[in-house]
Amino acid sequence: MSRVNTTKELVVQERMVLYYKYDNNPSTCVKIFHSAYKIKPFGFRLLQFNLFNTSDSISLYDGSLYNVSAIPLFSVTKDSGLEKKFITTQSPTLSIKLLATGASHMHGFIAEIVTLPISAIGFTVGYYYYCEDSFEGSLSVSWEQPNLVNVENLGGRLMTSLTLHQRDRPYVIKSDLTIMPHVTLTISPGTILEFAPRVGILALGTLIAKGRRHEEIVMRPLPNDIPASTEIVHNMYKSSLIVFDGLQKVRIRRNLLSDNTLAYSLVAGMKTARLESTLDATENWWGTKDPVIIQHLIFDFDDWNDHALVNFAPYLIEDSLTHSER
């Protein structure tokens, strides 16, 4: 939603996080979101809200704004008191129109767009759409204020950097854990994470996992729970071994996995009796563009018949999340 980014229409698989940061110039812009295959309607909510002027507004429409049939849904201004509402569409298209005066980059908003109904296996696809070409300053005092982290009940927004050290019991994640921008979550070798059903890690900041031989990082469902789902996106793993133990519906996308001195980068230990069970590890950089070497970095059904089969193609061909896939 800026002069820099001219993309007007975007496709949302399941979830998209939308940012806007003010600059010193006024802005009037429109973005149109379509659900994949134009099947599901949308839900919209503001996660962070700090418009500058009473004349500034965010307006939502059910349908394409360029079509006369679009229905106005919602308009929020600085003092409207409507910023906590959850807005839904009837159609598979959502239009957002922003009117903003020029102001300091301390002002702006963060919003979440989801397809409805929310997937029963959680957010398996997470995309992060930056309305400006950077997100360096803060949006408000409340954005910067650190919160106390309860490592015995992880979940919600992680506002300060945190390291999870190996210990004699697992860390339990009972609700979606969102790593906010400029925040780093470090998972030490030998650490075990247990996930409640339909819960995952959403990384807007940085997730660093450094496993070692015999000290793998294990992610698994809580005991006696329905097999959980999880996704890891937009992260960098160097000299790491990632292990999934018992999780179903796992997706690892848009990550950089490199400099690995271990035998494997990924162990797909999702015990299953179904031969068609797969782990989605597409669109990652594996430290090489040779598919034979990539296959050797993955321990899956081809190596042991009670593991899941890992699908790694298409994959990134350079050490950058912005490069093309093969």
List keywords for this structure.
five-stranded mixed β-sheet; Jelly Rolls; globular; eight-stranded parallel β-sheet; 2 domains; 326 residues; mainly beta
Task: Outline the secondary-structure elements.
Blueprint: E1 9-12, E2 15-21, E3 27-35, E4 42-50, E5 57-62, E6 71-77, E7 87-88, E8 93-100, E9 108-115, E10 126-130, H1 141-144, E11 154-158, E12 162-164, E13 171-179, E14 184-187, E15 192-195, E16 201-203, E17 206-209, E18 217-221, E19 230-233, E20 236-238, E21 242-245, E22 250-253, E23 256-258, E24 266-269, E25 278-280, H2 291-296, E26 298-299, E27 309-311
Parallel strand pairs: 1-3, 2-10, 11-13, 12-14, 13-15, 13-16, 14-17, 15-18, 18-21, 19-22, 20-23, 21-24, 24-26, 25-27
Antiparallel strand pairs: 2-9, 3-8, 4-7, 4-9, 5-6, 5-8
**What is the averaged pLDDT score?**
73
How many discrete structural domains?
2
Low-confidence stretches: 119-146, 237-241, 260-265, 269-276
Helix content percent band: under 10%
The number of E-state strands comes to 27
Morphology call: globular
The gyration radius over C-alpha positions equals: 21 Å
Q: How large is the count of helical segments? A: 2
- The fraction of residues in strands falls at 35-45%
The major beta sheet can be summarized as: 8 strands, parallel
Distance between the termini: 30 Å
Keywords: Glycoprotein, Repeat, Signal
Protein name: Protein bark beetle-like
Organism: Diaphorina citri (Asian citrus psyllid)
InterPro entries: SJ_maturation_regulator (IPR053243)
